[in-house]
Every structure is written in structure tokens, then in C-alpha cells.
Amino acid sequence: MSRTRKFAYGVGFGYVNQMVLMAAGLWLTPFLLRTLGTSQYGLWVVVAQVLVYLGLLDFGIVAILPRSVAGAAGSGDATSRAVEISHRIASILPIVGVQTLLAGLAAALLLIFLPSPWEPIRIPITMLLVVYVFLFPLRIPQAVLAGLQDNRFLGILQLLAWGLGTIATVLLVYRGYALKSLAAGWILTQCSISFCSIFRLLLRFPETVPRRFPVFDFRAQRKLLAQGGWVSVAQVAQMLLAGTDVLLIGKLLGAEAVVTYAITGKLIAVLANQPQILMQVAVPGLSEMRGFSTPSAIARVSCALTQGMLLVTGLVVCVVLATNRAFVWTWVGRQHFGGFAITGLMLIGMLLRHLNVSAVYTIFAFGAERRIAIVNLIDGLVSMGVASFLLPRVGIAGAAIGLIAGVTLVSLPANYSALLSITESTFRDYWRPLVPWALRLIPLAAGCALLQQWLVPESLFGVALTAIGVTVVYTAAMRVAVLTSPLSQYLPQRIIRWAAPAF
User: What are phi and psi of 139, to 5 degrees?
Assistant: First the structure.
């Protein structure tokens, strides 16, 4: 299968999975609130966050494995590639083994010192922690498949596993198992993904499976820990950056301001993940290019990915501008809408951070995890410093302005300087292909901003119809931008034929 087709499968299934999760979440969340009650569902949310924190014990080792495998896949002949991939998998096994012991110890301590308010959920949290520790090393096969760009299999597997877990959860909730049903659904989903990935690796790529446990190499393990450690630092910095604005608003302006800020940005938070799928899927391919491509080829691919991601980002901007007020009004009531200015600032911040993401994923594929971690930390400090200063003076808009300041003053200059160094290109070369997109986005966004002022659907169905209409208009207007090089060089011919009449 060609690299282009692998990439297309990854992006396609990524979007399908995201859309299914979004649609199901709109139904599943109120269903669980009605059947379990607010207190029990709130405890589940807390437990899920605990699992996220336990995941940090990985120190980023499994996170860099897809990049490492893809890098090995892009060099040498088939036999040497298989040997190199097997060696790279084997090299992380001792570290993951130690990490599994640490995860087990952390889980045991959590159960021993379980807070008294969590006593009603001791059984489901014990179920979760036991299985979580058991599956800790079994994440390796899925990461290897991602590095080998087996995107079609992974996309189908994730969709089916999530569907199976969701069905099990709903059925068990109806049978009265309460939070145990949520734990069982999560366990079924994760076990399905892990074990199916193991079988896929053994049957489809047996030559990559290590045949023996490696001899411990201190220098190699230290290098892996250093790389993974910086990835872990970047993840922590990103988690803090994503949630500290809410904490600052709560401390400086109160809980009601937090509700207004969170609800106004809910639609943006949900849709903002869609454009990033393009870059997430591309990381193994970019890592593979390190072995055989020239800087000019890397620059061309990176620029094409940025074009593709920003085309989706522009759609999110237009849809949110046109519908956010109506969405909030019909969803929870007009008293929780923060206003058009807040929406606009959040969208500007999202757009700038997506520009940053396009650089971050590319330089990560080329081993710049240390730079990314440091830049993220400084970005977070600047963002929260500006927000702390502005919140008492301008209200919740200060949080959005702070995030804009951090990415503009820190992340964009630092990450794009690294990107341009890797690709041996200039800002002018990199941004010229984005001009057709930008020239069309500005009037479209202005029109959507005017639309939301007088068009107020009275139901979520009306909001959905408005979003569909905006999508149709945006898609038609961006046909020329789709044909702009270098993006057009990587698109299927049927898309080129569809867009060509725009000329």
C-alpha cells in the first residue's frame, strides 16, 4: 500500500472516529447523568482523570515509539528494516517493564489511601487500576502498528472497540450495575484494542517482533529516557496550559465566570481537535522521510500538511462564528453565553495554536522533543502571566488574550524557526501557498459573524442545519485553495477533478 493511501486511511478513519465519538457523546452524557446521577457520574470523571495522570508514568517512551519505528522503516532494504524495527522495539522493553512496576505501585498506594468520598466506587476503581496496570506494557503493539502506518486496521479497530465498549456500558447500566458498568465498558474497549493489536502484529508483521529479551544497555536506555522524558514534560506543560485558564478564572472571578467561559468555548473545544488529526496521522510518515528525503521534499510535505489542516481549521472558524450563540442559547440558555467578542478571541487563539501545531508535529518527527517541551513551558508561563494581569481588568476575555499572547510571543517564533531550519526554507516560501486560503477565509468569517447576529435557530436541529449550510458555502469557496501547490500534489485525482471547475 502506498504512503499516500496509508495517510488517507489514517485521516479518514480519524475523522470518522471523532465524528462518531462526538455524536455518541451528545447522547451518552445526558443518558448517564439521568441513570447514574450527578454525583456518581462526577466521581467517574475524577477517576478517568486519575488514569490520565497515571499515564504520565510512561515518561513518553511509548509516545516516541511510533516515530522510532517509522524512522527505521524509512531506511535500508526490507530485511535490514525489519531487524532495525525489532531492535528498537526490544530496546524499550526493559524500561517499560520498570514502568509497569511503578504503575502497579502507584495503583496499590492509591487503593490503600483511597479518599473517603471515593469509598462507594472502590470496586470499580479497583477493576480499572488492575486492568490498567496489566495493559500498561501491552500498548506497545498498537504503537508499533501506528509507526508502520497500518492506519486502516487501527481505524477500524478503534471504532469497533469503542462501539463494543459503549454497547456493553449501556446494557450494564440498564441492568443496574452503576459505575461498574462504566468500568466494564472501558476495560472491554482497552482489552479489545490491545489484544487485537498483538494478533495483528504477530500475523501481519511477524518479522518485527523481538525474538529475545535484550541485554541492558545503559547508554541506549539513558538516551531513550531523555527523549521520552522531554515528551512527558511537554505533555505535562500542555495539560497545565489547557486547564490553568479555568483555574485562574475560578480564583479571580468566581465559579459563575468559569461556567460562562467553559460553555462559550465548548463548541470550539469539541471541534478544535478535528484539524489536528491530519498532523497526528502524518508524524510516522514524516519520521520515515528522515531516511530518504531531501530538505526541500520535507518542506513541501510539511507545507502541504499545514494547508490541509488550515482548510479544516477555517471551516471550524466559520461554523462556530455562525452558530455558537445559537448553540449555547438552545443548549443551556442564553445567560451562559459569554458574547461574540469572547467567541472571536477564542477562535483567534485556536487558529494561532493550529498554526503552531503544524510546526510542532513536524519538528517532533525530527527529534525536537526537548525544544518543544521547553517552549511549551515558557508559553504556559507567559499565557498565564498575561491572563492573571488582565482577568481582573477585562473579565474572562483576559484568559483568551493570555493564550493568544503566549502562542504569538513564544511558540510560533520558536517552533517555526526550528521548522525552517530543518526544511532549509524561508517564511516567504512557507506562507505563500496559504495566501489563497487566507484571502477567502477573511470575507467568509466576516459573513458568518454577521449571520449569527440575526439568525438564531430555536433548536439544536436548526443549529445543525445552519452549520451544514455554512459548510457547503465554505467548501465551494475553498475549491481554488484546494488546488494550490503543494497540497494539490498529494490529493486523490477525484478531489482534483471536483475542484478543477472552480477555475
Answer: -80, -15
- What is the reported pTM? 0.72
CA–CA distance from 214 to each of 32, 91, 210, 221, 490 (Å)? Answer: 47, 7, 9, 11, 40
Region for residue 294 given its phi and psi (left: phi exceeds 0; alpha: psi -120 to 50; beta: otherwise): beta
In degrees and rounded to multiples of 5, residue 148 shows phi and psi of -80, 0
Judged on CB neighbours under 10 Å (0-12, 13-18, 19+), 459 is: exposed
Residues constituting the chain:
503
Least confident of 164-178, 275-289, 427-441: 275-289
229, 236 contact by CB (below 8 A): no
Distance CA 86, CA 68 (A): 11
Please enumerate, as own/partner, the contacts of 445-452 that have beta carbons within 8 Å and a separation of 24 or more.
445/314, 445/317, 445/318, 445/321, 448/317, 448/318, 448/319, 448/321, 448/322, 449/321, 449/322, 449/340, 449/344, 451/321, 451/322, 452/321, 452/322, 452/323, 452/324, 452/325, 452/326, 452/340
Are 349 and 404 a contacting pair, CB within 8 Å?
yes
Q: How far is CA 254 from CA 251, 384, 441, in A?
A: 6, 17, 36
Matching residue, cell 527505521: 72
The three cell numbers locating residue 494: 477525484
pLDDT of residue 355 exceeding 60: yes
pLDDT tens, 249-290? 777 887 678 778 877 888 888 788 777 776 766 666 666 666
CA angle (330 as vertex; 327, 336 as ends), nearest 5: 80
Q: For residue 362, which of 315, 424, 298, 406 has the smallest C-alpha distance?
A: 298
Query: Which residue, among 420, 430, 384, has the nearest Cα to 404 in the 3D structure?
Result: 384
Handedness of CA 393, 395, 399, 405 (dihedral sign): negative
What residues contact 61, with CB distance under 8 A and at least 6 apart? 92, 95, 96, 99, 224, 225, 228
Tell me what pLDDT residue 349 has.
Answer: 93
Cα separations in angstroms, 190 against 95, 151, 158, 304, 429: 22, 18, 9, 34, 44
Q: At 6, which amino acid appears?
A: K
Q: Give the span between the Cα atoms of 128 and 503, in whole angstroms.
A: 56
Contacting residues for 493 by C-beta, under 8 A, at least 6 apart: none
Gap between the Cα atoms of 347 and 353, Å rounded: 10
State residue 406's pLDDT score: 92
**In contact, 349 and 403? CB cutoff 8 Å:** yes
